[in-house]
Amino acid sequence: MLLLPGMKAKQLQQYSHLYKSNLLNDVIPFWLNNSLDKEYGGYFTCLDKTGNVFDTDKFMWLQGRQLWMFSMLYTNVEQKQEWLDAALHGADFLIKHGRDAEGNWYFSLNREGQPLVQPYNIFSDCFAALGFSALYKAKPEQLYADIAAATFNKILRRRDNPKGIYNKAFPGTRPLKNFSLPMILCNLSLEMEHLLGKETVDALTREIIHEVMEVFYHPESGLILENVYQNGSFCDSFEGRLVNPGHVLEAMWFIADQAVRLNDQPLIHQTKEIALRVLEYGWDKEHGGILYFKDIKGHPTQQLEWDQKLWWVHAEALVCLLKAYLHTGDERCWEWFEKLHEYTWKHFPDPENGEWYGYLNREGKPLLTLKGGKWKGCFHVPRALYQCWMTLDAILEKETNLTLQEK
Amino acid sequence: MLLLPGMKAKQLQQYSHLYKSNLLNDVIPFWLNNSLDKEYGGYFTCLDKTGNVFDTDKFMWLQGRQLWMFSMLYTNVEQKQEWLDAALHGADFLIKHGRDAEGNWYFSLNREGQPLVQPYNIFSDCFAALGFSALYKAKPEQLYADIAAATFNKILRRRDNPKGIYNKAFPGTRPLKNFSLPMILCNLSLEMEHLLGKETVDALTREIIHEVMEVFYHPESGLILENVYQNGSFCDSFEGRLVNPGHVLEAMWFIADQAVRLNDQPLIHQTKEIALRVLEYGWDKEHGGILYFKDIKGHPTQQLEWDQKLWWVHAEALVCLLKAYLHTGDERCWEWFEKLHEYTWKHFPDPENGEWYGYLNREGKPLLTLKGGKWKGCFHVPRALYQCWMTLDAILEKETNLTLQEK
Predict the structure, then answer these.
(1) Where does the source fall among the domains of life (chains A, B) (predicted)?
(2) Residue B404 has pLDDT above 90, yes or no
(3) Which terminal residue of chain A has fewer beta carbons within 10 Å of its beta carbon, N or C?
């Protein structure tokens, strides 16, 4: 990738335009037009290929995430009333129906808001906290801050046994811990710094970075594992052998954001090296794209979907590579970005009907034609489009400054 | 399918030989050679392509099922000492480690027998009861009968809330019931008649047949649903829209066995019609084979593995078609059997290394190369081979008698 500065600048502008335009002219209108339940409140997320609602259940991960998305756009992109209204539309429903008497967030509700699945899943709470803390930035009403802070405190208290009474593991035989929670807390603590304060975030950050970059890091492979023993050692079991490349790539940009906050250059380089390593490892040499799951010893995985290509994996990988390139200038990041960009834009977006397909088979053809479902909502695609747009502009600014300095 | 009697007889003999020989010379030796844990007892089930153990956890579904398999072979095929020894090898381990203090069967143990996953899954109990009741036929020690009977009683008591404290559904909002338990009880009650007695089985049978053939039956489609409201009505949700063609086909031969016991010809015809309907519905017109899951309204399923081809689905469908043909003589059953036989034998068995692949992608290529895992053990393949062998011989006998009567 040795381009003349002028050509590189033009190319960066083109990429930036593509990500921005897909976000603002395609993906966000798709959700605004199709996902608001005007009758009962909250968001529909089960949207078929053309945006029609095919199921009306309301999954709390996706309710909280969509609230975050519209609040964030309002705060960071433009103070559009319809974006704030869309955020408030979700917030009102969540306030009314989202929690049990102890303040824990249900996993799902029916259309009317009655609870369907108990609050067994701590990530429902994580994304509710994420959503309300962003809404508080968009519209600083104390209630929103209170909900976010109270939820965050409950998450910290539940941390050591997140599933609580629904935990099916027999105590003591194989005490494992999972990568997802420290990874999400890494992003969540940064998103909530305006509510938590610098000191709390500092303390939490140091602990989380240690967990992600040392405890779950597997030095022999240079990868990060999904589950390790409580003491950090490798567990030779289905859970212990599992690698989720998309998770690692998403975590690496969360950690890179923390590293920027801490101005920790060695940490930034470490995230970049792990990202490049996991891409090499997770890339499907036969059909392209990033595999969903692998077993670190090469054994069959439990997950029957291991060879599928998922939207969020590719979206988060694009963000990760651009951030790594911005912060380190390592040309391998740019080369990987271009390779991944080409695969992603060839297979995931649906220019005819809008938004992106979520689930492709190994060959890259849509396995499910939905645009939203139980797990895919208004989150990874638009967040990644926004992050890529911003990061491409930052790269452009940095490279322009460098060129000017050289002259 | 209009063959001369002589040709048909030869063809039936060839099929019978194939199923018998694959059972006795390939599949059973594969498990005998690779799955017995000589050090800690019980069975390894995670076996790779060539039979090497790649994981040592012990999953109770598969422990109970393998115990059943070897006990059944000893009782029904030949009193081989090594088969009885293999059964006792599993039984000893299960007696020592399988249950909690209340007599509920854990979901899984580690290699040494320490509990890993709590007894949240009632099917662990079902397959333990199945195994010990068959062992009691092979070796009538009272302990085995007691374990089977006590387990069966506990299953009946847990029936209305099988997941107990691990149930994550919020009470009352959407009270669903699931097809799996009545379906398994249909088979289990018949398998345990020597312990339960005729009257108990009669009462249970009538109730189960009603559940399967009327409550879960969906008249508009002629199919059977995986989940319905407690009152039997259709629930328009991911769970309520789910059809699992393999489940239906397996259930139809369980019900056909019950119908034979009751000498209920209309019921036999009903199972045959549903089986033919579900095959038509579940058959992949593009690539052949039976799809794993479908949504009855044609919406995307929750299950990412919906388009895969699973060993047990095809094995159970073969049994179902042969029994339907034996009992009704409907030539459509024989035509479907031949079509399915061809697909199955082309894609699943691995003559080079033994046993069958379990998980194929939509195109029919192995998606996982394992021969055994967390869910695939020494059960569906050998049971189906045995059932097909026996049923083919019965068809041969019946058709020979008919031909003799005609002369």
Answers:
(1) Bacteria
(2) no
(3) C
